[in-house]
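Researcher: Here's the sequence for the chain we discussed earlier.
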Amino acid sequence: STHVVDVSAQSTGWFTWSFNLKGCKSLRIHGQEEKKIRFGLKGAEALSAALLTSQVTTLTLQSVDLGDDGVAALANAVSSKDSLLRSLFLWDTNFGSSGARHLGHALKSSSRLETLRLSGDHIGDDGAGALAGALANNRVLQHLLLWDVGISADGATALATGLIGSTVSELWLS
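Model: Thanks. This is the structure I predict for it:
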């Protein structure tokens, strides 16, 4: 089943994050583009811990302010042998090249993640290089979709080089 957590980002107070994901296969947390959910490291750590004890295979975070530290926490869950996550979609989650490096590191040891979709986060050429470096070591990832992430021709070239010998059958760059 799909759980949709459509949190109104009108509240500016701190949230206490806890997740009961029993029976949940797909989780979508969606804020508002003009006012993101302030998730941060604490929210990401709580979500990551819950993912490791759940059946969630698809996670979508949109307009959620994770930052690089929050993405690092999620990357730890992605790389865990206890994670069942197969698809990760991060849209407008306020991270950059450092967060992409954490995702790249996670891809090197992830045994399940098949789809990674990033959109609206400025990972730049350094982040693209980090993801590219992980592709040769990952034997599961099939779909890598990068939209509006600040990659130039240099980043695209790094990704193309990283694709040689990888399992990725679909790459979208925009």
